[in-house]
Design a protein that fits this description.
heterodimer, A: about 240 residues, mainly alpha, MetI-like fold, 10 helices, about 5% strand, B: about 300 residues, alpha/beta, four-stranded antiparallel sheet, 13 helices, 10 strands, globular
Chain lengths: ~240, ~300
C-alpha cells in the first residue's frame, strides 16, 4: 500500500472520523460544564467560614472528594463508575451520560482547586465591602468575588479543559452507544479502523493526533480571545 | 440605650493571644460626629470594625438603634448574673450582691452550660427581645475603608446600585436616579460607566463614600479614609466628609487628620493600648491632654 492509497482510505472514512470527533467533543463539553458547576460549588464550600455544622460536614465531604478523585487515575474511575454506580446508565440506548458524568466528576475536583485559588486571590476588602453594605456572604460571593475569581483563573481553567478533551480518549475502554448502535470516540475509531486495515494503522493514529491538536489550538485561540475581552472590560 | 444610635459596651477583642481591645465602651448619638485618634496598634480600627461586626467582639455587646447585634454578654447584666447558679452558690456563702457580681465578672466565673434554667431562660429572652440580624443592621450603617474596596468587576454605577437592588430596597430606576444624583454632587457623573481601575485614589474614595450613601445609612463609619491617598487627593475626600457632616450625618471617623478632627468633631476619643484613654471636645483633648500617652501622641503629630 502506497502512502497515497493510505490517504485515499482515510478520505473514504472521513465521515466516520468526523462523527467520532463530534462524539469526543460532546463528551468533553458535557464534562466541562458538569465539572465547572461541581468545581464552583466545592470551592465555595471549601472557602465558606466554618460557622455552622452543615458547612463543616460539607467541607469534610469536599476534602474527601477532592483527595480521592485527584489521587486515582481517570481510567480507573471511569471503569469503576461504568461497572457499578452508573451501570443502569450503561444499559440505556444512549449511554453517553456515563463518560460525561465520570469525566465531569473527575474534572470537578481539579476545577474546585483552581477556583478556590482564584477566590483566595481576590482581595479580602471586596468581601468586607459587600458585607458592610448589608449583603449576605453568599450574595457577595455570587456578585463580586466569583466573577473576579473566574477572571484570574481563565488560563488555568482552559488548561484543565484542554487536558480533559484529550483525556476523553480513554473512553475507548468502554462501549459507547447512541440509539442502541455502538459508536466510537476519536481514538477508538482510529484503533478500530487500524485493526481492520493494519497497513493504515499509523496513518489513522497520526490523523487522530492532528485532529486533537487542531481542537486544542482552537481552544487556545478561544482562551486568548476571552482573556482579551475580560481585560477590555476593565478599561 | 440612653439615646445612643450606636453603642459598644464592655468590648474585648482578642486575636489569638493578642488583646487588641481591653474593655471599651462608647456611644455615638444621632447627628454626632466622633473622631477617634490613637497610635497605630492602639485598637481604634478594630473598635470601629466591631461596630458593624466586621470583627466579632470576643466579649461585650454592640447596640444599634436600640437593637443588640452581638450575642448577649451576661457580665453586662447584673440581673442575669443574679439568676446564675454561681451567684446563688456564692450568695449562700454570704456576702454583698455587688461584691459577688464584681467577683464573678473579675474572675470570669460564669459557664454557659452550668448556670441553670433560670439563667438560660433570661439569656434567651433578652436575646430574642433585642436581637437584630447583622445584615439588617449593616444595611443602615455605611462603612468607608482605607483601601476604598470598590467592586473591581462592576462599573461605578453598578457599584452604587448593587446593594439597594440586591436587597430590594429600591427599584432599578430609583436606585439609578439616586446614584446619578450623588455622582452629580461629587462631580463624577461622567465616570458612571467607568471601572474602578481607571479612577484616581481620591475619586475611588469619594465614590466609595457615595456608594454607602446609596443605602441611606443612619450612621457612617470611616476607617482611616485618607491614609492610603496621595497627599494631593486628601483634600477632596475630607471636603466631601465635611459636607456630609454639615448635612447632619452621624459619623464616627478613625483618622490621623488632626485638622479635620478640630474642625468637624463634636467629640474626640483618644485610644491607647486597647482602651479609650481620653474623651472630650477637640479643644479639651488637643489643648489640655490629661494622659501621658495622649501628650506624647499629640506632640508627635502636631
Amino acid at each position: 500500500m502506497t502512502f497515497a492509497d493510505k490517504i485515499a482510505k482515510l478520505w473514504e472514512l472521513r465521515g466516520l472520523f468526523a462523527e467520532s470527533l463530534g462524539l469526543s467533543l460532546l463528551i468533553a463539553f458535557g464534562a466541562v460544564v458538569l465539572g465547572f458547576i461541581i468545581g464552583v460549588l466545592l470551592a465555595v464550600v471549601r472557602i465558606a467560614p466554618k460557622t455552622n455544622p452543615v458547612i463543616k460536614v460539607l467541607d469534610k465531604i469536599a476534602v474527601v472528594y477532592i483527595t480521592v478523585i485527584r489521587g486515582t487515575p481517570t481510567l480507573v474511575q471511569l471503569l469503576i463508575l461504568y461497572n457499578s454506580v452508573l451501570v443502569s446508565f450503561k444499559r440505556m440506548p444512549t449511554n453517553l451520560l456515563v463518560p460525561i458524568i465520570a469525566f465531569g466528576i473527575n474534572s470537578g475536583a481539579y476545577m474546585a482547586e483552581i477556583i478556590r485559588s482564584g477566590i483566595s486571590a481576590v482581595d479580602t476588602g471586596q468581601m468586607e465591602a459587600g458585607r458592610s453594605l448589608g449583603l449576605s456572604w453568599i450574595t457577595t460571593m455570587r456578585k463580586v468575588i466569583i466573577p473576579q475569581a473566574i477572571k484570574t483563573v481563565v488560563p488555568t481553567i482552559f488548561n484543565e479543559i484542554i487536558i480533559l478533551v484529550k483525556e476523553t480518549s480513554v473512553v475507548s475502554y468502554i462501549v459507547l452507544k447512541v440509539n442502541s448502535e455502538q459508536k466510537w470516540d476519536l481514538l477508538g475509531m482510529a484503533e478500530k479502523q487500524g485493526l481492520a486495515t493494519p497497513a493504515c494503522y499509523l496513518v489513522f493514529l497520526f490523523f487522530a493526533a492532528i485532529l486533537y491538536l487542531a481542537v486544542v489550538m482552537l481552544l487556545t485561540a478561544l482562551q486568548h480571545f476571552i482573556e482579551r475581552r475580560l481585560k477590555k472590560n476593565e478599561r | 440605650m440612653n439615646g445612643d444610635l450606636v453603642e459598644i459596651r464592655g468590648l474585648y477583642k482578642y486575636f489569638g493571644k493578642l488583646e487588641v481591645l481591653k474593655g471599651v465602651s462608647c456611644g455615638v448619638k444621632k447627628g454626632e460626629k466622633v473622631v477617634v485618634l490613637g497610635a497605630s496598634g492602639s485598637g481604634k480600627s478594630t473598635m470601629l470594625r466591631c461596630m458593624n461586626l466586621l470583627e466579632k467582639p470576643t466579649y461585650g455587646e454592640v447596640w444599634f438603634d436600640g437593637n443588640l447585634l452581638t450575642p448577649v454578654d451576661p457580665y453586662l447584666h447584673p440581673d442575669i448574673i443574679k439568676a446564675s447558679r454561681t451567684f446563688k452558690k456564692l450568695k449562700a456563702a454570704g456576702g454583698d450582691d455587688g461584691e459577688i457580681i464584681a467577683k464573678i465578672k473579675k474572675e470570669d466565673l460564669l459557664h454557659e452550660k452550668h448556670e441553670g434554667g433560670e439563667y438560660s431562660a433570661l439569656m434567651k429572652s433578652f436575646h430574642k427581645e433585642h436581637y437584630l440580624n447583622e445584615n439588617l443592621a449593616r444595611a443602615k450603617m455605611g462603612m468607608v475603608f482605607q483601601h476604598f474596596n470598590l467592586f473591581n468587576n462592576l462599573t461605578v454605577l453598578q457599584n452604587m446600585t448593587l446593594a439597594p437592588l440586591e436587597l430590594k430596597l429600591k427599584s432599578k430606576e430609583e436606585a439609578t436616579a439616586q446614584a446619578m444624583e450623588l455622582l452629580g454632587k461629587i462631580g463624577l457623573v461622567d465616570k458612571a460607566n467607568s471601572y474602578p481601575s481607571t479612577l484616581s485614589g481620591g475619586q475611588k474614595q469619594r465614590i466609595a463614600i457615595v456608594r454607602s450613601l446609596c443605602m441611606d445609612p443612619q450612621v457612617m463609619l470611616f476607617d482611616e479614609p485618607t491614609s492610603a491617598l496621595d497627599p494631593e487627593m486628601v483634600g477632596e475626600v475630607l471636603e466631601l466628609m465635611k459636607r456630609l457632616a454639615e448635612a447632619g450625618m452621624t459619623m464616627m471617623v478613625v483618622t490621623h487628620e488632626i485638622g479635620f478632627a478640630r474642625e468637624v468633631a463634636d467629640r474626640v476619643l483618644f485610644m491607647s493600648d486597647g482602651v479609650i484613654a481620653e474623651s472630650g471636645t477637640p479643644s479639651e483633648v488637643f489643648d489640655h491632654p490629661q494622659t501621658q500617652a495622649a501628650q506624647q501622641f499629640l506632640s508627635s503629630v502636631l
